Amino acid sequence: MTPPSLPLPDITLAGTLFDTLRQNSLDGTGITRDSYGKGEQAAHDLIIRTAQSLDLEVAIDGTRNLYVTLPGVDRSAPCTMTGSHLDSVPAGGNYDGAAGVVAGMAVLAGWRAAGLTPPHDMTVMGVRAEESTWFPYSYLGSKGAFGQIDSAAVLALPRSDTGRSLASHLTECGGDPATFGQAWLSPDRIARFVELHIEQGPVLIEAGLPVGVVTGIRGAIRYRDARAVGTYAHSGAVPRRSRHDAVRAAALFIAAIDQDWERLEDAGRDLVITFGKLSTNPAQHAFSKVAGEIDICMDIRSLEPETLIEVDALLARRAAEIADRARVQFVLGERTGSAPAVMDVAIIAQLSDAAKALGIPAMRIASGAGHDAAVFAQNGIPTGMIFVRNDRGSHNPEEAMDMNDFAMGARLLAHALCPSWPARPE
Ligand SMILES: [Zn+2]
Questions:
Q1: What is the pLDDT at residue 424?
Q2: Where in the chain is the domain with CATH 3.40.630.10?
Q3: How much distance in Å is there from the Cα of 314 to the middle of ligand 1?
Q4: Hey, what CATH topology would domain 222-338 get?
């Protein structure tokens, strides 16, 4: 006997959820859902009410992450999971994060409407505090779910706007500092995690494709406090050969690294390099002065660990070369970063096959931004991601996702969450 068709996600419900989320979080400029604050909590409350109205199971862990579960036939089998974050940056957009939770709810609602039971539990997670603009910590919610945070240190973190501790905000959301960060998820109970998210760059827009199958999440090397130090001097009186010009040194350094980037990209390597902030010292700099110092921020990302290592070595080499040439000192300062997260090859292949079978135009794409899916992948759980086309980027009120694109992404997600039921055109 062939299994019945996979139920279609409830896109009407998704539209209502997006509208209500927007209404609840308008701030006059954009959307604000503050982590462990009123905005994020209102989003969690909305998803809880929706889950209850669909007779789905609701659970909340010590970190105040939310889990909505559609019970399967075999409750002892590992579940499949989806989800994303429900917080946003200040004056952000309505879809970054929320789209992943809404898509999961639409899939579960589709099963309920069809009166069918999946072979195993399917869970949608509403992750807390993914946007590190509120609390300076990457993947706070998802790491907390796996018991992988230093709870005492994290509870003491001040929120960037209020200055109050996470412990204080947590208590307001009904949480208990005593259970914060306790492990709730265990990797061997999760068969797979697939996150749907809007694309935050222009790749799908430029390709004219509604969805992308994510191959991996780029890791990063960051130098937030690099500096070139030379000597302040009179702009008219000091000849080229006697200068120790920090701005010129920074420019030469950036140009050299840019050439390295072009060469590596031409060789087929995945790499993006950003010098997002360059600052001379306003207390000393002047129109008629050779700059004696400059602060440089560097953010280097790649899917390939070996590329990150190679570029890191290049940064040191170019810095030494330019220091010599421009007679300045380079100090790269503290290095931070994160490891790349590779998506599961079987899930990538399944998503690509399902897109083909369903007539959904899709391409493979690397994720430049970090996502909670990285934490699941790093815990050894087979992990995948679906990107939905979105115009005008994210982290701003102008995010523009088309509901038709979202519906295609949600259909792919439905297949990813119940891979034993074959994809078939409707
Ligand atoms: Zn996001």
A1: 56
A2: 11-218+340-417
A3: 31
A4: Alpha-Beta Plaits (3.30.70)
Closest by Cα among 174, 27, 50 to 124: 50
Q: Which two tokens stand for residue 95?
A: 């879809």
* Alpha helix positions (H), 327-402: 345-358, 373-378
Instruction: Output the CA 75–ligand 1 centroid distance in Å.
Output: 30
Which of 415, 352, 419, 345 shows the shortest CA–CA distance to 383? Answer: 345
Helix or strand holding residue 415 (H, E): helix 403-417
Nearest to residue 41, comparing CAs of 195, 184, 170? Answer: 170
Residues of the chain within CATH 3.30.70.360 domain(s) are 222-338
**Given this model, what pLDDT does residue 1 score?**
46
Q: What is the DSSP letter of 240?
A: G
List, in sequence order, every residue forming a beta bridge with 297; answer none if it has no partner: 277
pLDDT digits (tens, 9 = 90+) for 302-313: 999 999 999 999
Interval 351-388: pLDDT, tens: 999 999 999 999 999 998 889 999 999 999 999 999 99
Q: Structure pTM?
A: 0.87
Amino acid in the structure at residue 256? A
As its CATH architecture, domain 11-218+340-417 has 3-Layer(aba) Sandwich (3.40)
Instruction: Give bridge partners of residue 221 from the DSSP assignment.
Output: 300, 337
Q: Which two tokens stand for residue 224?
A: 């937030």
DSSP 3-state of 225: strand
pLDDT for 423 equals 59
Q: How far is the CA of 95 from the centre of ligand 1 (A)?
A: 8
User: Measured in angstroms, how far is the CA atom of residue 126 from the centroid of ligand 1?
Assistant: 12
Q: Which amino acid is at 318?
A: R
Residues within 5 A (CB) of ion ligand 1: 96-97
How remote is the CA of residue 40 from the centroid of ligand 1, in Å? Answer: 13
Residue 349: per-residue pLDDT:
97
- Residue 362 CA to residue 351 CA, distance in Å, equals 9
Q: Are 194 and 417 in contact (CB under 8 A)?
A: yes
How far apart are alpha carbons 330 and 258 in whole angstroms? Answer: 17
Q: Cα of 402 to ligand 1 centre, how many Å?
A: 17
Number of residues written out for the chain: 426
Would you state the structure tokens that stand for residue 213, as one six-digit string?
């199958």
Which residues of the chain are modeled with pLDDT < 50? Answer: 1
